[in-house]
Amino acid sequence: MTDLIKMTGIGKSFAGIVALQDASLAIRPGEVHAIIGQNGAGKSTLIKILTGVYRRDAGDVQMNGTPLAITTPREAQDAGIATIYQELSLVPLRSVTENVVMGYEPRTRLGLIDWKAAHARTREILARFGVDVDVTRQLGSYSTAIQQLVAIARAVSLDAKLVIMDEATSSLDDQEIETLFSVVKGLKASGVAVLYISHFLNELYQICDRVTIMRDGQTVATHDVAETTKLGLVSEMLGRDASEIQAAGLTALSGGHGEPGEVLLEAKGLRSKSGLRDASFTIRKREIVGLGGLLGSGRTEAARAVFGLDALSDGQVRHHSGAALDTPAQAIALGMGFLTEDRKADGIIPHMSVRENITLALLPKLTRMGAVDRERERKLVAHYIEALQIKTSGMEQPIRELSGGNQQKVLLARWLALEPEILILDEPTRGVDVGAKFEIQSIIRKQVADGLAVLLISSEFEELVEGADRIVVLQDGRSVSELQNPGITEGALIGAIAHHHERSAA
Amino acid sequence: MTRTLTLMRAGFDPTRHGALCALGGILLFNLLVTPNFLHAQTLFVNISQVATIAIVAMGMTLVISTGGIDLSVGAIMALSGALAPLIFLSEFAAANPTLGLVASIIVPILVALCCGVFNGVLVSYLNVQPIVATLIFFISGRGLAQVMTNGNLQTFTNPSFSYLGTGKVLGLPFQGWLVLLIAVVLYWMVTRSVFGRQLLAVGGNERAARLSGIPVHRVKIGAYVICAGLSGLAGLIVVAINSASDAARIGNLMELDAIAAAVVGGTLLQGGRAPIFGAVLGAVIIQLVKYTLLANGIADEVALIAKAGIIIAAVYLQQARKE
Predict the structure, then answer these.
(1) DSSP structure class, residue A4
(2) Which residues in chain B are closer than 8 Å to A352, comparing Cβ atoms?
(3) Chain A residues whose C-beta sits inside 8 Å of any chain B C-beta
(4) Per-domain residue ranges for chain A?
(5) Cβ contacts (< 8 Å) between B215 and chain A: which residues?
(6) Where are the domains positioned within chain B?
């Protein structure tokens, strides 16, 4: 049987950084195929090449045995490849019908849109998925699940041979997921192949036939789902030996206990709209607490909740002073800092100088009668540029001209300048070169020795395992276990994450 | 690219000094062509005319630096300009001339400040698009002013009040000095004060500013309040110059002049930068172009087209600079 889609030897670099190297993917007609991998493994780059969003540097794409030259998303659609993104690319303010027939409207003899035919066709298509809605109403008035189904309906109505679903279930509730799954099964039954991208391994076992695992821009393996175990998949995703994970996983539950320090902050049963379900942890003086877990487990969300950025629907954050903690400004006043994951969106003020960026959070304390105390500001900034070895042509250089690692150091300086009690670090060394990474880590370690409490989030297991004194493992917004250093190994951490996935599958 | 770099190294960056070059060009042109350009009278006329544009443009610069825009400045000018004569022509003012005069300056400005609070609250707390939020007063402010005055032209003789628009200090118009004073204060505020730093941070990256504990809402409201207050003041000056108040005409199309002046002065429409003296310079250029065309007998309508040309040039230079 010829593969519907066959991608081989795909290579892609962005500005010299390799995103894909010799990656491959083969999808059979009418199968449900999953792609899994850690963040940055190259899943989305591979799919964007398939759908014409990016152009490949190397490699070959075939559809039904003939070479496929797709350079725009529109061409992909015409070739029968439809993509349903996590963020829906529909028009919420227009009717359901308009969304389904957009660009392919049936015409009357006068060349006008034949609305009667359009509504009828939309109703018929939706009925196939068991969806019965008023097709003349605005799409935006329906739930996300219905909208997602409409997106799929549109794809099918365009005679799609392959439907790509990128994180399709991440905004759906259990019942809506069930509906979506039955639609996927329906697609499969009618001979349409589905490429399914998800961070939830459980879903894979429910609806997928085969699974391709990616790691570091390469395709690791493709298996029949029935022949895999979760442990095996996790080990291939992370590039670790399964037996090592299993062995380590057993000892993880019996980790040694250290001396509990002075508790500075306690999060209890956090629940939020952003995805926390029941997360609890404590932050103690002179200690690095790591938050472990896969992408989407609620690590960043937990940090945001603690910092007063996201409202809690249940649970509480208790600061040792007893003061309220509802806004970032209050958190900062209580001696907390938050080095965010997305440097560009949440961190730097691009037009401002290194000096102004460093003192941004400290401003209220640098004030003399409404004016910035420039003398003190310069001294302080000079001190941090020196101490953190920030490479800049001077403190007046705009921050946007600095390299990623130096920008990160400036942002770290912004928080250290506050002399904080608690510092939240979300991926502190992501996108930073090795030298700067080492420097940042040693700065943090030194601060902790001086009494700083750190909440560390990192997708790099090494960083967590070596850095954290304790690791709280999160899964699906819940804190499921806690590991204690010394004694944590990467295997133990991976095991803890994988084991809980096993348990929740049962 | 390399050529721009060498030019910059030579200390000349046309995108940075474009406005100054334009000013030089206009001055030179006038010296050569416009009759009587070097007379003191010309200077006085231009200073008294440019003052209102400059004052409002500085306020506009602050608002734009937060990433917003204020369309209501002209209407707020009309509102305060209509209020002032109502107050100093009232029976109360006739009985207490000094108190009446003070009230006729302070009350309109207070009303303007309230309009600013309204704009700011809509934009920050209620998250309304600035262009829509300020459209409310753009439409209703002038209407309100006309209702208050029954649509009548109010003429008056009040030398003390008229000093705002016709007085001279050291031989130069009073409002010229006022512009200088306001510019110095705002320049200090933007470059030295905590509020100024926070303002630019909010405009530069609102999410990062919020995460750094900056009271984003309050900072934004502050910008709109200052802009509205300055508009109110400008409205008083217009009325004082004319010794008459016509609610339908005070500050008409001022929002466009102010935005143009701010942009010509180097304000980025996406926020993050607030060149106060640039705004003054922009206002001077716009005024001079108007004057040049008028003095050479070219119709007002053509002046409008010339103004548009200046804006296009300014935006083009800004775009070039971004790369």
Answers:
(1) S
(2) 200-201, 204, 272
(3) 307, 309, 328-329, 331-333, 338, 340, 345-352, 356, 360-361, 363-364, 366-367, 370-372, 374, 414
(4) 5-244, 273-335+422-486, 349-419
(5) 329
(6) 42-252+268-275
Contact A309 B272 (CB under 8 A): no
Closest-CA residue in chain B for A347?
B208
Instruction: Report the alpha-carbon distance of residue A421 to residue A168 in Å, rounded.
Output: 40
Of B192, B194, B201, the CB nearest to A349: B201
A273-335+422-486: CATH superfamily: P-loop containing nucleotide triphosphate hydrolases (3.40.50.300)
Q: In this predicted model, what pLDDT tens digit does every residue of A239-272 receive, in sequence order?
A: 776 666 555 443 332 233 345 568 899 999 999 8
- The residue type at B110: L
Report the residue of chain A nearest B215, measured CA to CA. Answer: A329
Residue where the block lists tokens 């019908």: A97
Nearest to B175 by CA among B20, B56, B291: B56
First to last CA, chain B: 9
A232-241: long-range pairs with CB below 8 Å, 24+? A233/A36, A233/A201, A233/A204, A234/A201, A234/A494, A234/A497, A234/A498, A234/A501, A235/A494, A235/A498, A237/A36, A237/A37, A237/A38, A237/A41, A237/A213, A238/A38, A238/A461, A238/A494, A239/A215, A240/A490, A240/A491, A240/A494
Q: Do A370 and B195 touch (CB under 8 A)?
A: yes
CATH code: domain A5-244 is 3.40.50.300
Token match 């009759």: residue?
B35
> pLDDT (tens digit, 9 = 90+) per residue, B124-176?
999 999 999 999 999 999 999 999 988 888 888 888 888 888 888 888 899 99
Cross-chain Cβ contact B195/A414 below 8 Å: no
pLDDT < 50 regions, chain B: 1-15, 323
- Whether omega for the bond prior to residue A486 falls within 30 degrees of 0, making it cis, is yes
Distances (CA, A) of A126 to A350, B46, B199: 47, 69, 51
Residues A351, B193: C-beta atoms closer than 8 Å: no
Whole-angstrom distance, CA of residue A428 vs CA of residue A448 = 15
Q: Report the C-alpha gap between A444 and B196 in whole angstroms.
A: 32
Task: Say whether residue B201 is in contact with chain A using an 8 A CB cutoff.
Answer: yes
In terms of CA atoms, which chain A residue is nearest residue B205?
Answer: A349
Q: Which of A263, A317, A258 is nearest to A468 (CA)?
A: A258
pLDDT digits (tens, 9 = 90+) for B27-52: 888 888 888 888 888 888 889 889 99
ipTM: 0.84
